[in-house]
Amino acid sequence: MAHSGSANQFISHASQLKNTHMKEMRRRKRDLLRRINYSYTFTVAVLPLLAFIYLLRTGESFIPQNNDTLVFCCIYYNLTMLAFTAGYHKYFTHNSFKVRYNWVKYFFAIFGSSVGLGPIRWWASLHRAHHHFTDDTEKDPYSIKRGFVWAHWGWLIRKPKITSFYNEFMEQEFPKNPEVNAIVNEVNVDQDDQDYSEYTSDDFARNSNYDEPLQQLLAWQERHYFVLFILTSFVVPVLVTVFFCSDTVVHGIIYPGLLRLFWCQQSLLSTESVCHLKSVQVTIPTQPFNDKNSSQNCNNPLVSFLTYGQAHQNYHHEFPHDYRGTSSFFAYDPTKWFIWTIDKLGLVEELCRTPENLIIQLRIQQQQQVINRMKSQLNWGTPISKLPLITPNDFKRIIASSSNKDRIYIVIQNIIHDITPFMDQHPGGVPLLKASHGKDATKAFYGGVYGHSTAAVNLLATMRIGMLDVGNNEEVWRRVAREEGEVEKSDEANHHSNSKSYRTAEAA
Amino acid sequence: MTEQLDTADITALNALAAGTNKKTPRIVAAGLGGRLMGTAEMVKVTAEQITEDSLESLADKDAREKAKYAKTKHISELPWTFGNFYKKINWLNMILVVAMPAFGTYQAVFYPPALKTLILAFVLYLFSGLSITAGYHRLFSHRAYDAATPVKLFFAFFGAGAVEGSIKWWGHSHRVHHRYTDTDRDPYDARQGFWYSHMGWMLTKANPKNRARADISDLSTDWIVTFQHRHYLLMMLVSAFVVPTLTAGLFWGDYWGGFIYGGILKSFFIQQVTFCINSLAHWIGVQPFDDRRTPRDHALTAVFTFGEGYHNFHHEFPSDYRNALKWYQYDPTKIVIWVLSKLGLAWNLKKFSQNAIEQGLVQQQQKKLDRMKAKLNWGLSVDELPVWDREEFNAKAKSDGLIIISGIIHNVKNFVKEHPGGQALVRASLGKDATKAFNGAVYAHSNAAHNLLASMRVAVIRDGNVNANTFDLQQQFLDKEKLN
């Protein structure tokens, strides 16, 4: 029967659908398992969790009871954090300064690995990708657009979809192959016709951060990352705890090992999550330099403390090469203090500082943009060019008509204004307005009777209804140009080069 | 076209604005009180004179006045000497605002107050203070709202108790103050210093050269105002002194305390607080709406003056019944008026449009920003740059480290080493046009980078496509790329 046939067909179709659906789910599950980044899950989730479980089971305090261990924890926390923020972040990623001695680089590389956020090559190239493609949902590895949890933890636990992109990016930023000077060679080929006698290749090598030794260092660190991690996260803390603080091995693993690890990670991860979040007002977020991306200056000093002085992300995203986290002298910024100190000790050189002028310029441009946005939302009155032209005779006729008996029209600078709705609010009283009805009150308005305030001039503009046609077109066009040039200026974020005093710089 | 529109007759308008168009000239503080206070001669001015003064330049006016008063100087223009100081002082005001409070303070030292008397004094202080701010100021002077007769009567009676003159006189001076803020005609000209605008103006005789008038025809037609004006002395004595003395005396036998605390000292406090609006509110604080004139916004002033401290706003939008806009700003007067309106005792509360208010804010911010901008180095503008030929550029490019970006030659020699993207990229572009590379092909530079670039300008290349606004250019490039 046709009916049963179609029913069978339907059932088979349904089961087929179900099968594909199941397959899809299984595939997704498999994908999920494959896409979990086990090593980072282990360092950022499993290890701290184990420590918590241990402490909760045994009922021991989260703060070490042994005084020496506590002191050691604080010292070790700062040491590893500085190795990470000054080394991984400011040196390897942003090239904020040059290191004079190799052992300083090794110090950064070894103790930076104790935070468990991966080898330098991996973390630094991802961080560069974050700066390069901020807020891009795919290319920014910890884009806040994918949610708070993703920006904080998710990006470590799940592998990105576009793994090949990141691999290529990593290869581009920190090439592994021995041709370190590939770019340089390319450049030299590129400019055969030019002769840069004054720039020696020696000059170049000294100033380039990513040179052969550094490349070897990164390769070495990546190769031995796991050993270094175990060494700095467990072996060193345990040894110090046992031999110098006379505490137990377990306490050595828990306190300066895992809890410190957890605390370091949270400090670092929250810069990418908390400091990119606008919706939470507790952190007092502002964007004084650029509000086109999600980076926020968190002005709550508590956030500054939590993030180890990296709370001013809006500044950092605009001036990533600055060795400081923000330009303010008084900001809580241990990394800045550390780098400054080792600079004075002569271990590093050529600290990158953004000139104060640039910072103020950017601040001003951002404010300008905010103001422009506010301006564009306000009613500044009908522009002169859009006003209907009315001849004086027509205007007289309009006034004379009985339907306009109760209205008040006043001409100021040849523009006809309908004052009727504002009449009762006029601070100088209605009689003055009535006496000026249908007349040119330019002089009276601008000082003859009262020199009106800026606010009054603004209000007047909103009451325009027409332009008196007195036959002086040139004058009209001059005013159009003057006024609407201004309007255009406030409408568009970007000025054109015909404004006299400031140029390019003030764009956006 | 020859047809012309009538021009508003400024003299006629001024006559209106000054209220001199009436057949019977309006009298402000005439008679004994007026003569004592010295206000009568300050208002004897015609519309013609005002118009003449308003339209001519200040320099002309000064010259004319100088010539006029070259021989006969008014007492206020003479220097203070032992021989004439008593002539310069306005003795009535001296007694009312200095001598009596001094006497009260002296008595208070020897006469500790009863708690009930203090409470009475405080309540009367609130009544009189609010009568001045909500009544004298916002209702009568600025017509910021309309009020029912009982409310007006309350304001007229307790306002008289503040010993600051009648509504008519007070309102007139205040309107003159708003009309001529920060000019010689301003009765409490803030430019002459804190103490002048606080008390000095009333303790000394004013110069009739600075006569001014404002229209108060609406006040003159209000029977409450005229009644209060006619019987001001009596009302003032009853409201300021008799009421507290009798209340304290009849109910708890503290006649003297009632007179000292509820009468003299209460009036003294209100006076000082009101004077603060003329002095403190033009002295400390910020100017978010317009900084052309002296009025300022400050929370401290607001706390002292029942919320009149947001004076910058008030001078921009005088007939707004509010002085504070934000919920956290202290303006009890506004709240009182609002409550009255909810009780049906006040209506027609005037508010300026939010649009106009925000316009003022934005313009003032823009002004500040422009001032900051003017202080910075934004690089030379394109018109100021010399024009170079290709050959000239090629010759110098090697030695000077030059790069062309959007038709402008930049000297990057000192910058190469500081380039965040590494030197190689800059070096590769030396002597070339790097417009595309700079604007996104290699890296879309930040705003700061564009600023920095502008500061390195050297010249303009001939026949180059000059666009000084490199940031716009970059946006165009990026948009194009997005489309592709």
Structural write-up:
Chain A: Its cofactor is Fe(2+). Chain A: InterPro entries: Acyl-CoA_deSatase_haem/ster-bd, Acyl-CoA_DS, Cyt_B5-like_heme/steroid-bd, Cyt_B5-like_heme/steroid_sf, FA_desaturase_dom. Chain A: It catalyses: octadecanoyl-CoA + 2 Fe(II)-[cytochrome b5] + O2 + 2 H(+) = (9Z)-octadecenoyl-CoA + 2 Fe(III)-[cytochrome b5] + 2 H2O. Chain A is mainly alpha-helical and 508 residues long. Chain A folds into 2 domains: 32-191 and 204-354, no CATH class; 384-506, Cytochrome b5-like heme/steroid binding domain (Flavocytochrome B2, Chain A, domain 1). Chain A has helices at 2-35, 38-58, 67-93, 102-112, 120-132, 148-157, 163-173, 182-190, 201-207, 212-223, 225-244, 249-273, 301-306, 313-318, 334-344, 356-376, 392-400, 430-435, 442-445, 454-461, 473-491; strands at 98-99, 285-286, 297-298, 348-349, 389-390, 409-412, 415-418, 464-468. Chain A has a 4-stranded mixed beta sheet. In chain A, strands 1-4 form a two-stranded antiparallel ribbon. Chain A has a two-stranded antiparallel sheet with strand order 2-3. In chain A, α4 (102-112) packs parallel to α10 (212-223). Chain A starts with a helix and ends in a 17-residue tail after the last helix. Mean pLDDT of chain A is 82; it is low at 180-208 and 487-508. Chain B is built from 23 helices and 6 strands. Chain B has helices at 10-18, 31-37, 47-55, 58-68, 85-88, 91-110, 115-141, 149-160, 167-179, 194-203, 217-220, 223-230, 232-252, 255-279, 299-304, 311-316, 332-342, 354-375, 390-400, 423-429, 435-438, 447-454, 470-483, and strands at residues 146-147, 346-347, 387-388, 402-405, 408-411, 457-461. Chain B is mainly α and 484 residues long. Chain B is elongated and about 100 Å long. In chain B, β4 (402-405) and β5 (408-411) form a beta hairpin. In chain B, the strands form 2 sheets. Chain B has a 4-stranded mixed beta sheet with strand order 3-6-5-4. The longest helix of chain B has 27 residues, at 115-141. Chain B folds into 2 domains: 86-362, no CATH class; 382-483, Flavocytochrome B2, Chain A, domain 1. The two termini of chain B are 56 Å apart. In chain B, α7 (115-141) packs antiparallel against α13 (232-252) and α10 (194-203) crosses α14. The chains are: A mainly alpha (508), B mainly alpha (484).
